[in-house]
Amino acid sequence: MKHPRSWRARGLAAAGVSAALVLAACGGGGGGGTGGQQGSSSQGAQAAFNAASTSVVNPSDKKGGTLKFANEGDWDTLDPGETYYAYSWNFARLYGRSLMMFKSAPGKEGNQLVPDLAEAPGQSSDGAKTWTYKLRHGVKYDDGTEVTSADVKYAVLRSIDKQTFPNGPAYWEAPSALNLPSGYKGPYKTPNMNTDSAIETPDEYTIVFHMKKPFASFDYLAQQPDTMPVPKDKDTGAKYRNSIVSTGPYKFEGLQPGKSFNLVRNDQWDPATDPNRKALPDRIEVTLNVNADDIDNRIISGDLDVAVTSLGVQPAAQSRVLQDPTLKDNADNPLGVRLWYTSISPTVKPLDNINCRKAIEYAMDGTAYQTAYGGQFAGGDLATTILPPSVPGYQKYDLYPNGPDHKGDLDAAKKSLEACGQPNGFETNIAYRAERPKEKATAEAFQQALGRVGIKLTLKPYPQGDYFAQYAGLPPYVVKNKLGLATNGWAADWPDGFGFLSQIVDSRVIRETGGSSNISVRIPDVDNMLDSALTELNTDKRNQDWGAIDKRVMEDAVIYPGVYSKSLLVRSKNATNIFVTDAYGEYDYLGLGAQK
Amino acid sequence: MTLPPEAGAEAEAAIPEAVLAGAGPTEGRSLGQIAWMRLKRDKVALGGGIFLILLILVAIFAPLIVKYLGSPPNEFHQELIDTAGGTLEPIGRFGGMSWDHLMGVEPVNGRDIFSRIVYGSRISLLIAFLATLLSVALGTTLGIISGFIGGWTDTFTSRLMDVFLAFPLLVLAIALAGVFPDQAFGLQGNQLRIALLIFIIGFFNWPYIGRIIRGQTLSLREREFVESARSLGARRGYILRTEMLPNLIAPILVYSTLLIPTNILFEAALSFLGVGIRPPTPSWGGMLSDAVVYYTQPHFMFWPGMAIFVTVLAFNLFGDGLRDALDPRANR
After folding, report:
1. How far away is chain B from the Cα of A449, in angstroms, using its nearest Cα?
2. pTM of the prediction?
3. Which of A95, A433, A522, B31 has the fewest CB atoms in 10 Å of its CB?
């Protein structure tokens, strides 16, 4: 599950969400957050399976010690203007300060946005099109110079240059986002252009963003690492990733690209300006390109603390952890902000008939989908909606109940087939990414389950690099090759209905030339509902809108929701203050401390 | 025939078979009969041969065998998998071995490994046999032409063989199988994949056998019986068919038998790399590739690995025995 960047959609909020982005979050135990931190610090919530998902395990305020992180691959980039992995956004809070940030707290509380570099959340005016932030005074870079609003503006503008930073998120420059002058290509190529129409800095501590369209959930944009200030005179473009100037409690030391780097204390960081960070360990050592099985074994033995990509243990360690009660008590199983699903294309006959699509919804064996993704612990929970339970706005409902054992309701499926005029079933194809064994297993599960009602499926593997650009995401190709089903997956860049839904249910992101992650949802109603939700400034009402959109899409039976992803993580023996944050579905790297 | 003075056990082995076997009245024996007699005495080769015959029968009667001894190869048996504990490993010892599932079941979906091995033999053998046939046909034709005609034709064909031998076959195979469309030449889906695999494996392996045939032809061409045929006015076609080809049958047979296991391995390698047969159709290489991430479940890797190993070994033993029988002068 590495990053298939090339398929990232580039519409408004080209969320893209590479598959590697495990924006997981803890689903259950909503209230665990607030009580958890205080309550457990006295008695110490000790080893129990999944304890860190809702409370702080091994709480401590002791400073000092070293934490060891390992990454099974290379870091995409440490440059806050380009990095685009959930784990990296989680980690970036150690060395950089963005305008807003996700609170360092367990469970659902971790989903809250709190001001970081800014003094307070954004103030909107002009119908949610203009957003103003006041910066904290006294925040300094690691060389001692003070951060100004011009640095934040510069950081945002440089991230727009997609020739220099091809892999970063593309929210700022999207057609309906920042009101940039036409022809603007970032500060490197068009340095003299006046960009005040997009971002104004009336004084050293004020920054004003102007959007072309209302963007009610702007604070989520302001938490992206690309709002972490970058000093213009220290910026070296694409090479800045190797010489990052820190604003957080840690700065870089001994960075060897592709091998390792360390974070050490930044003496210019003033805790008085920062209510959000405890900064417990003295030192964080990160090793890159370590074998994934090796990482699992070393964490279990206590030689290593964190598998930073947080994708969950490999199958070998998985059975070891689940079978050994002691190991299991030291593992967590957070639910993610990610859905593994299958698109059902209404452009392919006979799936243009809603009843034929419903037959698939009823006939599929949900448990087979679950095991294909690794079972109830490593795979996830059976899904009946598009929004995972951890995303605000989630409403629990099940339009296509698949029987008490979740193995499919064959009677309902047969009735739907009759209503569709295909009582003996029909033939169609299922596309999946050839490199992904889990998607292959899913396709095989579909073939078996749908075969029970006479729907004959043929498996069509495609290379994942071009999956959306040339195959499953290319509308004419889908029709021509009768790709009725296509396995798919989605994780939001942030836990919010917009971040989760916009790229996969908005029909306007579908392009005839391919590349969209939305393969099957073409409902004009839904497009309108999305637009109106973005003008709703009341968060609760907006969240209700997301739930309604979710349900409207499911009524059309164009998506088979498979599993809300979960990952199996092993807790470090040396780390203290361990908890999973809802915002990333990973251990909160900002909260961790070390015993030694 | 004079016997050497110290006629011992060692010397006896050197006595021609015709004499040893000659209990009854001495008869003339054809080359085939002599070879068969030699082969019969080579128990190892014979064992390999018997295994291969069984394997071919298994491949042919796969549906029947699976009907009585297994379950359909693509059928899921999730009730046999530990879904409650979340490990997704087969329930029971040795990968869930039982009378219903002789080799246990796969992790995750619980498919019967025995059935998949049995059905997998069809793919392996089909592709290996047909690819070998293609190589042998091409190699023999071009080898004979090259050796018999000589001159510019020989130079050109020999260089062509060099080019083919230098080809990065695996890279080409992966690239070709990756970009090949889903439908072509009136075939689609797995039929097309099988045809493509046969083509890739067969078409690029012909120079090996081609070189051997060319060498044999070169030496045969100068032999007395060919020269006498030529002096009697026999035409080229006649000489090729009647004088050369029968003498080439032995090397062709031997090298085909030795090429088949190589092709089985190559097919398995391609399936392992994900460019082979499309799932869920079982193939040994594909099963191995599925098993890699479940190395804590050794049975999943053991059975397909064993199937490939034993089959390749049997072909090699049989091929070696056949070579010894047909051409005892050839050095091992």
Report:
1. 9
2. 0.79
3. B31
Instruction: Pick the residue from chain B with its C-alpha nearest to A293.
Output: B293
Cβ-based contacts of B78 with chain A (< 8 Å): 367-368, 371
pLDDT per residue of chain A (596 residues) written in tens, 0 to 9: 333 333 333 333 333 333 333 333 333 333 333 333 333 333 445 578 989 888 899 999 999 999 999 998 888 889 999 888 889 999 999 999 999 999 999 988 888 899 999 999 999 988 889 999 999 999 999 999 999 999 999 999 999 888 888 888 888 887 778 999 988 888 999 888 899 999 999 999 999 999 998 888 899 999 999 999 999 999 998 899 999 999 999 999 999 998 999 999 999 999 999 999 999 999 999 999 999 889 999 999 999 999 998 888 888 888 889 888 899 999 999 988 889 999 999 999 899 999 999 999 999 999 999 999 888 888 889 999 999 988 888 899 999 998 888 889 999 999 999 999 999 999 999 999 888 888 999 999 999 999 999 999 999 888 877 888 888 989 999 998 899 999 998 888 888 888 888 888 988 888 888 878 888 999 999 999 988 888 888 888 988 999 999 999 999 999 999 999 999 999 998 999 999 998 888 999 999 999 98
ipTM of the complex, rounded to two decimals: 0.74
Considering only CB atoms, which chain B residues are within 8 Å of A481? Answer: 182
Question: Do B109 and A371 make contact, defined as CB atoms within 8 angstroms?
Answer: yes
Place of tokens 């209503």: A419
- The CA distances from residue B7 to B2, B3, B20, B126, B232, in Å, are 11, 7, 14, 50, 45
Query: Which strand (E) or helix (H) includes residue A566?
Result: strand A559-566
Q: Nearest-CA distance from B108 to chain A in Å?
A: 6
Q: How far away is chain B from the Cα of A411, in angstroms, using its nearest Cα?
A: 20
Sign of CA dihedral A443, B96, B281, B309: positive
CA angle B116, B122, B125 (to 5 degrees): 130
Q: Test A315 with B296 for CB contact under 8 angstroms.
A: yes
End-to-end CA distance of chain B: 29
Which of A313, A320, A444, A477 to mutate to probe the B interface, most B CBs <10 Å?
A: A444
Which of A297, A300, A371, A377 to substitute to test the interface with B, most B CBs within 10 Å? A371
Q: Residue B181 CB: number of other CB atoms within 10 A?
A: 8
Is the distance from CB of B79 to CB of B111 less than 8 angstroms?
Answer: no
Q: Is A374 on the interface with B (CB under 8 A)?
A: yes
Q: Which of A41, A64, A428, A70 is nearest to A259 (CA)?
A: A70
Select from B74, B83, B87, B283 the residue whose CB has the most chain A CBs within 10 Å, as the one to mutate to test that interface: B87
User: B-contacting residues of A 464-493, CB under 8 Å?
Assistant: 481
Residue among A403, A404, A381, A345 nearest A559 (CA): A345
Note whether B192 contacts A: Cβ–Cβ < 8 A.
no
**Which three-class secondary structure string do you get for A146-191?**
ECCHHHHHHHHHHHCCCCCCCCCCCCCCCCCCECCCCCCCCCCCCC
Residues of B in contact with A365 (CB under 8 A): 76
CA angle A161, A166, A167 (to 5 degrees): 125
The pLDDT of residue A267 is 93
Among B71, B74, B75, B76, most A C-beta atoms within 10 A, so best to mutate, is: B76
Greatest Cα pair distance in chain B: 84
